């Protein structure tokens, strides 16, 4: 199974950079069995080999995944050809719950976690370092300056921000631009056909700043892959939106003769303005093949429209207010339809 069309893989640029990353990222929170549901190292090796053979080059991990085993396994498996991989890891979550400085966004936490990650990954640099989650105590200026220091030292090539409010990323990048520091080039967040809250603020912000969006939870813990509720990774009652999205995915999958999960990931890949790339996490090479098939699945405009409408989000204020016909008429008079917008709402189009 190839990642892309024709004889080669398909890659995209990461945000406003020249870094080429495969359009499906391999998440490695499943590398290691410390949490009770991951893959043994031998299977991790098979998953990574299958991903490499498909042309994949983008790997995502974190300092705390499977209690550190994810980074260690990834380090052993990529040591022989480290430079062909784009490796992303994260810092912020505590690596010693009894130590108040072992987690957070501050400089000491950053340096401590990054140095441990570099040792675990058996490398002297990471391609992308994510701020994993915003804490409520560290000044944004300290975060951006501390990250920029690591870029200048050559230990980090690019920086991104994950699971944080839109205003934090926007303010951080404004400060970075003003002071000549390294800006965030990508945004990581939970996003799926059944969970589209980021369309309110985060995706428009990413589009305005030219950030690539990396989506996790694209299968809603298995709900969009056709799994029964009791078999999900985190069993629980499905919401009405979950059920509507799952039904639409299964219907389209049946028409196309493919798996529901493949359709759900293909829908993500066709989101543009901003670019949204899925992070897939699997426990077997067989699961990976199903996920990678999304790169070449042809979803017609009718399929895309049906999926979009199945679980459309309630965007709320201010978007629902500012994008209403009445308010647009107040602002633009009768000229809105004839304006060429520099930015429009997240679109399933490929162009």
Question: How would you portray this structure in words?
Answer:
- By secondary structure, the protein is of the alpha/beta class.
- It has one domain (about 10-340): NADP-dependent oxidoreductase domain (TIM Barrel).
- It is built from twelve helices and ten strands.
- It has helices spanning about 40-55, 70-80, 105-120, 140-155, 165-180, 200-210, 240-255, 260-270, 285-290, 300-310, 320, 325-330, and strands at about 10-15, 20, 25, 60, 85-90, 125-130, 155-160, 185-190, 210-215, 275-280.
- The strands form two sheets. An eight-stranded parallel barrel has the order 3-4-5-6-7-8-9-10, surrounded by five helices.
- Helix 6 (about 200-210) links the parallel strand 8 and strand 9.
- Helix 1 runs parallel beside helix 9 (about 285-290), helix 2 (about 70-80) crosses helix 3 (about 105-120) and helix 4 crosses helix 5.
- The longest helix has 17 residues, at about 240-255.
- The protein is globular and about 60 Å long.
- The two termini are about 25 Å apart.
- The model has no long low-confidence stretch (mean pLDDT about 95).
């Amino acid at each position: 199974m190839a990642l892309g069309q024709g004889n080669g893989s398909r890659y995209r640029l990461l945000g406003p950079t020249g870094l080429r990353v495969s359009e499906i990222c391999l998440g490695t929170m499943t590398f290691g069995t410390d949490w009770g549901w991951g893959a043994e190292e031998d299977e991790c090796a098979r998953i990574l080999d299958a991903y490499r053979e498909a042309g994949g080059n983008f790997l995502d991990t974190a300092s705390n995944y499977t209690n550190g085993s994810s980074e260690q396994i990834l380090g052993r498996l990529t040591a022989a050809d480290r430079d062909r991989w784009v490796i992303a890891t994260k810092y912020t979550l505590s690596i010693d719950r009894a130590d108040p400085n072992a987690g957070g966004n501050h400089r000491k936490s950053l340096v401590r976690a990054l140095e441990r990650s570099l040792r675990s990954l058996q490398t002297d640099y990471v391609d992308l370092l994510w701020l994993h989650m915003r804490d409520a105590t560290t000044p944004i200026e300290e975060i951006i300056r501390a990250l920029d220091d690591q870029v200048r030292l050559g230990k980090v090539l690019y920086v991104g921000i994950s699971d944080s409010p839109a205003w934090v990323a926007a303010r951080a990048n404004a400060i970075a631009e003003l002071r000549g520091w390294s800006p965030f080039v990508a945004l990581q967040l939970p996003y799926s056909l059944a969970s589209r809250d980021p369309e309110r603020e985060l995706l428009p912000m990413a589009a305005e700043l030219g950030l690539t969006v990396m989506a996790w939870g694209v299968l809603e813990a298995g709900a969009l892959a056709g799994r029964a509720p009791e078999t999900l990774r985190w069993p629980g009652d499905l919401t009405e939106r979950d059920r509507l999205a799952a039904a639409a995915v299964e219907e389209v999958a049946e028409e196309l003769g493919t798996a529901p999960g493949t359709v759900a990931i293909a829908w993500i890949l066709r989101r543009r303005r901003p670019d949204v790339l899925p992070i897939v996490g699997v426990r077997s090479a067989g699961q990976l093949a199903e996920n990678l098939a999304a790169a070449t699945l042809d979803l017609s405009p009718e399929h895309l429209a049906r999926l979009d409408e199945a679980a459309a989000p309630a965007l709320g204020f201010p978007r629902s207010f500012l994008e209403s016909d009445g308010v647009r008429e107040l602002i633009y008079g009768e000229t809105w339809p004839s304006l060429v917008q520099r930015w429009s709402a997240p679109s399933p189009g490929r162009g």
